[in-house]
User: Which sequence fits this backbone?
């Protein structure tokens, strides 16, 4: 079997996918029109560039500007439900069997919704997806770096009642350069007390110290990106020794100029070094990608072979925050796929 065909068919996970960065452009435009939210372009073709980065931008800040319209249109239950369901439908087309969707509920209160209503709406679409589309998912709620810590405390206190019922983890997202991890220790202490997992965006924009700070001060069990881990040998050793997974999103890193090109991304070096690397999309719309494309880029630009693909796919299952029961299902499906397509003398070229 051709490696690219296998990439399309292999059962995959996506552990780092922002809901507001992964909304279909036609949906954003449709809701913007209904809600009289101004856009620069009103035909879909020209509109794409308002919500996508095509190539590179100058910084993470410029990248984050692409979230303005998506957040603006996600202020009513019906729209939040719709974009969640559409994301699940799109994920399924790429053979994603389990996805951890993340977003910042605090960004969706402008229309009068409460934090509970925002979170419940996403969980309700995820439950529909599990029952009717047969795609498993969990929710990671993001605290925002630039917001006062009190808001993140309110968020985690609101979310604790959904622990084990859809919400699996707390994340810290946003402008890493100006707001270091230590500002947000309290909500992450609470998440740990409430048995809610922790993952933190860190080392995405050149500040390698944020990786160890997130692990030590915020109890991070996984690191979002961790692209700059190579800048500090002790961090690399610690990540490898303690099997702290990296949620890597290579197109996003090219977009934000965290790396110069796909070829220069450190992902293969990390994998060969023994780090627990996982492959994810970050934002399918903003980064104009899919999980299948991310794997294709790894083969094309990073010389990933079959063993590498298998390793990161297995890591995606093993290091997910899925329940033991869901992990068993994912492993069974993955093993049966491998047996069917590669077993008993099957070759992949
Ligand atoms: Zn992210």
Assistant:
């Amino acid at each position: 079997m051709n490696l690219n065909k296998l990439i399309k068919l292999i059962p995959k996970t996506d552990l780092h996918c922002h809901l507001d960065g992964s909304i279909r452009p036609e949906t954003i435009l449709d809701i913007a029109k209904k809600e009289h939210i101004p856009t620069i372009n009103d035909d879909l073709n020209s509109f794409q560039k308002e919500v996508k980065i095509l190539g590179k931008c100058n910084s993470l800040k410029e990248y984050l500007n692409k979230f303005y319209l998506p957040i603006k249109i996600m202020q009513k239950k019906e729209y939040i439900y719709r974009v969640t369901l559409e994301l699940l439908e799109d994920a399924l087309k790429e053979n994603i069997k389990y996805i951890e969707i993340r977003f910042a509920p605090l960004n969706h209160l402008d229309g009068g919704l409460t934090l509970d209503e925002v979170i419940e709406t996403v969980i309700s679409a995820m439950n529909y997806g599990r029952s009717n589309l047969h795609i498993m998912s969990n929710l990671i709620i993001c605290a925002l770096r630039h917001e006062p810590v009190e808001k993140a405390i309110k968020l985690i206190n609101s979310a604790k009642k959904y622990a084990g019922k859809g919400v699996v983890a707390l994340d810290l997202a946003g402008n890493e350069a100006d707001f270091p991890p230590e500002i947000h220790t309290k909500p992450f202490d609470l998440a740990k007390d409430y048995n809610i997992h922790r993952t933190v965006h860190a080392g995405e924009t050149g500040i390698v110290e944020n990786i160890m700070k997130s692990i030590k001060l915020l109890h991070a069990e996984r690191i979002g990106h961790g692209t700059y881990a190579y800048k500090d040998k002790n961090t690399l050793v610690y990540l490898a020794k303690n099997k702290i997974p990296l949620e890597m999103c290579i197109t996003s890193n090219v977009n934000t100029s965290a790396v110069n090109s796909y070829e220069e991304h450190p992902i293969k070096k990390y994998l060969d070094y023994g780090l627990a690397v996982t492959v994810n999309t970050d934002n399918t719309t903003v980064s104009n990608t899919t999980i299948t494309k991310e794997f294709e880029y790894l083969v094309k630009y990073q010389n990933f072979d079959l063993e590498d693909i298998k390793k990161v796919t297995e890591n995606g299952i093993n290091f997910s925050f899925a329940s033991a029961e869901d992990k068993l299902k994912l492993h069974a499906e993955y093993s049966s796929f491998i047996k069917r397509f590669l077993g008993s003398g099957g070759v992949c070229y």
